[in-house]
Amino acid sequence: MAPSHALRCCKRTLNWAPVLFINLVVGWSYYAYVVELCVYTIPNNAERISYLVVFHIFLFMFIWAYWKTIWSRPASPSMAFGLPRAEKELYEREERAERQQEILKKVAKTLPVYTRTAGGAIRYCDACQVIKPDRCHHCSTCEMCVLKMDHHCPWVNNCVGFSNYKYFVLFLAYASLYCVVICATVVQYFIKFWTKQLPDTHAKFHILFLFFVAALFFISIVSLLSYHLWLVGKNRTTIEAFRAPVFPNGPDKNGFSLGFSQNVAEVFGEQAKYWIFPVFSSLGDGHSFVTRLVHIDPEQANSVLQQNGKSPAEGETTPHVISNSVQHTEDNSIKKTDEGQTVSVTVESEP
């Protein structure tokens, strides 16, 4: 038991190595830019001050978004998605997979759960003992289920999901801009040192290396940023991009796409003034999502969560929810809900 605990502690410590590396690189870049470039190399005071102001603005935004991504605890499913005591005891005693699925289907009828496994079964996490909400996955590194999980990122030593996906995208954006600012302002002195227009000093190595490092980081980061901006526009996670979510009617890679503007709003929020700041403004509660397959009255959706012991907090944006009280049929017909409301279920074909 003790060796296992010791190994886990060592693993958790080593997981911080990439974060330490990033911070060491940023710390060195700060010294190289502020001291070696601005203090020892740039002769003009006005140029020096303007460079320092712009540099510190983007550095501050970059560090803010980066550490928000690191320290934002991944959101996990609420207790409403756990099995009630009676059903849990039956599930644990039952050895037949078919019977276990019947128990899960009975509980899932009262939850806003719509996606399934590849085999059409209810998605259940044995480790966390919860029915997985839509877009939720278990992270073996974090050892927990993460709402709208995108991926586990070693560079932030954290899971990127519903609680911090906006911060992660902003971190990539500001890291790219930080590299652009460095390259754009250092390039003229890089050329002067390279062509011997400036005498060899202790600043030469730092400035030459600073330009190369910033350029290489920019190329790698901007490619990752472009990919995640594409995912935001399509309303997909990295997991969903590689494996399409499965609905009762089958897999659909565009199942959660609601149009470009609504897809962006789901991550960044509806108020554009908050988009550039690493403050939480994403829509919903991470437990349930509107799909292009189903359209339900928001009031009815809220009642589903309230019936399961989870209601939106005051002042929160109304969660986008799918209710399983709708009976989905293969012929796209109209069915009555348990409350007697008529809900239209429409299935769109793949573009």
UniProtKB/TrEMBL annotation:
Basic and acidic residues bias: start-end ranges: 328-339
Broad class of the protein's primary localization: membrane
Polar residues bias spans: 340-351
InterPro entries: Palmitoyltrfase_DHHC, PFA4/ZDH16/20/ERF2-like
Gene Ontology terms: cellular component: membrane
Catalysed reactions, as listed in the record: L-cysteinyl-[protein] + hexadecanoyl-CoA = S-hexadecanoyl-L-cysteinyl-[protein] + CoA
Domain of life: Eukaryota
Region span, Disordered: 306-351
Transmembrane intervals: 20-43, 49-67, 167-191, 203-227
Keyword flag Transmembrane helix: yes
Molecular function GO labels: protein-cysteine S-palmitoyltransferase activity
Palmitoyltransferase DHHC domain sequence ranges: 123-242
Record text about domains: The DHHC domain is required for palmitoyltransferase activity.
Similarity comment text for this entry: Belongs to the DHHC palmitoyltransferase family.
Descriptive protein name: Palmitoyltransferase
Lineage summary: Eukaryota, Metazoa, Chordata, Craniata, Vertebrata
Gene, per the UniProt record: LOC114445885
